[in-house]
Amino acid sequence: MPSGSGDRIDAQPWSQMQVMTDQHRRFPPPWDVDDNGACFIVRDVNGQALGYVYYENEPGRRAAAGLLTRDEARRIAINIAKLPEQLKPQR
What are the 10-residue block averages of pLDDT along the chain, 91 residues in total? Predict the structure, then answer.
């Protein structure tokens, strides 16, 4: 129980949760990836931005800022965009 709160929140086990259908999802698939020159943006089918994966092309700036290479950022963004397909229930 959270301290200072009289309310208890019970989390349902994963096995008891209902799997949402595609029409009820808040971020409907398919998800797509756009490159704006500084980052890759993962968007849902409605154009809602879901995530940004930043990169830097210049090695000196990349090392100083701890950013990813363009290829690393692209691969991560593509894998994020694949999540709805990977999380579909097996039939």
Answer: 48 46 75 97 97 96 94 98 89 71
**Token output for 79:** 């894998």
Between the alpha carbon of residue 22 and those of residues 61, 67, 88, the distances in Å are 41, 34, 9
What does pTM read for this prediction? 0.69
Strand partners, 34: 41
| Cβ burial, residue 17 (10 Å; 0-12/13-18/19+) | exposed
d(CA 5, CA 23): 36
